[in-house]
Request: fold
Amino acid sequence: MPAALVFAAASIEPTPRLRARLAELGPLFTVAADAGAATALSFGITPDVVLGDFDSLDPAVLRGLNVPIESHPRDKDATDGQLAIERALQAAPDALYLVGFLGGPRLDHGLANILLLTRIEVATVLLDDRNECRLLRPRSEHAWQPEPSEVISLIPLTEVVQGVSTRGLRWPLHGETLQRGETRGVSNEPAGGQASVSIEDGLLLLTRHFV
Reply:
């Protein structure tokens, strides 16, 4: 299966930029976690599956959905968002896009959702109306065409990330080491043309913030 899209419950604005970003992905297998179903509908997307303990979704919205519903108890060992990711992965997608996993009033949820990336083997992108982030694993590279005003940050999730190299950024790195807890990789800028980041070892979070 080409790709899957998962909506979680964090509040997110369906901005023209984010609408266009999702539209360019084409048809996707879509899973919504609880109130993420309402978010999906706000983008004009009807989920293929809705799951959760349904403590945050308006019951009227749930009743109006003519799609499979998978209920889970409130007392469980994973968030609805994680369960939705696991459900999407059952379809064996080659890429995963996550919306509504960032922001909102719960810092704990946002941090936990970012760390979920370390458990997902397929290429995964976290999106909201102002940000995108992805995880780079050992001996991997990501290249993209940056927007002129975006802000790029590199945040180590392991104690050290080695062999970090960049191209097309204002402050380049050439096979260098970044350490967890330092801010050396925060707030870089495009230098025109294509940008890329590669690493040799460790786990590196690549974030793009759109001004």
Observations:
- The first helix runs from residue 16 to 23.
- The first strand starts at residue 4 and ends at 7.
- DSSP finds five helices and 13 strands in the chain.
